[in-house]
Every structure is written in structure tokens, then in C-alpha cells.
Design brief:
It holds the Pfam family Aconitase_C. The chain is an alpha/beta fold and 211 residues long. The protein has one domain (6-174): Alpha-Beta Barrel (Aconitase, domain 4). Helix content is 31%, strand content 15%. The chain has helices spanning 21-24, 44-47, 85-93, 105-113, 123-133, 164-172, 176-181, 184-197; strands at 6-14, 70-73, 97-100, 117-120, 140-144, 149-151, 157-159. The protein has a seven-stranded mixed β-sheet with strand order 4-3-2-1-5-6-7.
Length: 211
């Protein structure tokens, strides 16, 4: 998983509440189990018309927001079904951070596991950041995860809170598997001891955990 430390990037506005996971990635695109390739279908019903042509009025189809790595939105982002394809699609599109007053719990947890930083800020602050995004190419925010602060285009600094463990895992670029693999020697030692104590017990190498 790519490390997240300091991100300076264009922010795109999606000033709507209750954007659900079906809006983020429609169900018909969930047949794959691969994390790559879903970005082209992110927000499909908003980005494309019934003929598959891009809608010119949708923000992520316009410059400079095609290069956005930050989304600023409103309450309950990621509600609906629990599909992990939603953060996969956002990440594949290029989104590394989503800022909102609140998130659906499962989407919130899945985001951290896939290298996306979800930041909770008040509705008032989110509205201010939405105004910042209207500056186009100058609508860059800086997210400093180490210091837990956002720097607006005008230089104002906004603090945010992140669970210490999740913060460290993002800083280190470690997903659940990588976190487990830190303990390879201990796992193998445990399995060797278990095999000797109980010969019938099937040995599981730690190497298989990463496959």
C-alpha cells in the first residue's frame, strides 16, 4: 500500500449528502475481484450519459478536477452497501483523501485499509473547503497526516483527528496483510512448536499468509 504522508493536490467538490456506494461504483461493475481498473467506472451514472458519453457538466469530467486527489463532500459519504469496491474505485481514479462531516462506518474502515484517508470535519468547515475548490487549478489543499492538519490555499491551517494506529499504518503504507507479516518469525515459531507438540496439527507457513 502506498505511504500517505504529505499530499498537496487539487480538491474537487461533491457538495451532496448521502452519496452511497452505488453512486461511487454501480453494482454492475462489481464482478471483478481486482482492485485495479475500476477508476474508469467511478461515479459512472454521474460521469456518463446513457450512451456512455462523458457529461460535460460533471465536476470530475472537467479540468483541472480530472486530476483531483482530494474530494470534499457532505454528510454520510459512502452509505448504502458494504462493497469494498467503492474505495477501490476511488483509489484507482486517483483519490487519496475524502473530507466530509461524516462517513458510513464500513466505508470509513475500508478506506483506511486501502490507503485512502477519510477526514471528518464540521459541515461549516467543509462548506469553506468547497468554496476553496472553486478556485480551479489554484484549489490545492495540503494534507499533512503526520501533523494532522490541512492547509488551505489562503494558508489557514485546520486540525483534524485520526486514530493513532490507523494514522501510523497509513504513514507506513501498511495494510492488514503487511501488518500481519511483521510477525512472520513469531508465526513460524508458533507453528513449529505446535507441530512438535501435536504432530497431527497441519503446519501453516507464514509465507502463505501473503499469497
Amino acid at each position: 500500500m502506498e505511504k500517505f504522508d504529505i499530499l498537496t493536490a487539487i480538491a474537487a467538490p461533491l457538495p451532496e449528502e448521502n452519496i452511497d456506494t452505488d453512486k461511487i461504483i454501480p453494482a454492475r461493475f462489481l464482478k471483478t475481484t481486482k482492485r485495479s481498473g475500476l477508476g474508469k467506472s467511478a461515479f459512472y451514472s454521474w460521469r456518463y450519459d446513457e450512451n456512455g458519453k462523458e457529461r460535460e457538466d460533471f465536476v470530475l469530467n472537467r479540468e483541472p478536477y480530472r486530476q483531483a486527489e482530494i474530494l470534499v463532500t457532505y454528510e454520510n459519504f459512502g452509505c448504502g452497501s458494504s462493497r469494498e469496491h467503492a474505495p477501490w474505485a476511488l483509489l484507482d481514479f486517483g483519490i487519496r483523501c475524502v473530507i466530509a462531516p461524516s462517513f458510513a462506518d464500513i466505508f470509513f474502515n475500508n478506506s483506511f485499509k486501502n490507503g485512502i484517508l477519510p477526514i471528518r470535519l464540521s459541515r461549516e468547515v467543509c462548506e469553506q473547503l468547497v468554496e476553496d475548490t472553486k478556485m480551479g487549478a489554484n484549489a490545492k489543499l495540503t494534507i499533512n497526516l503526520e501533523k494532522q492538519e490541512i492547509i488551505r490555499p489562503n494558508g489557514e491551517r485546520i486540525s483534524f483527528d485520526v486514530d493513532p494506529l490507523r494514522r501510523q499504518l497509513l504513514l507506513d503504507g501498511m495494510d492488514d496483510i503487511a501488518q500481519t507479516m511483521q510477525y512472520v518469525k513469531s508465526i513460524d515459531n508458533f507453528e513449529e512448536k505446535r507441530k512438535k507438540d501435536q504432530p497431527w496439527y497441519p503446519k501453516v507457513s507464514a509465507d502463505k499468509l501473503s499469497s
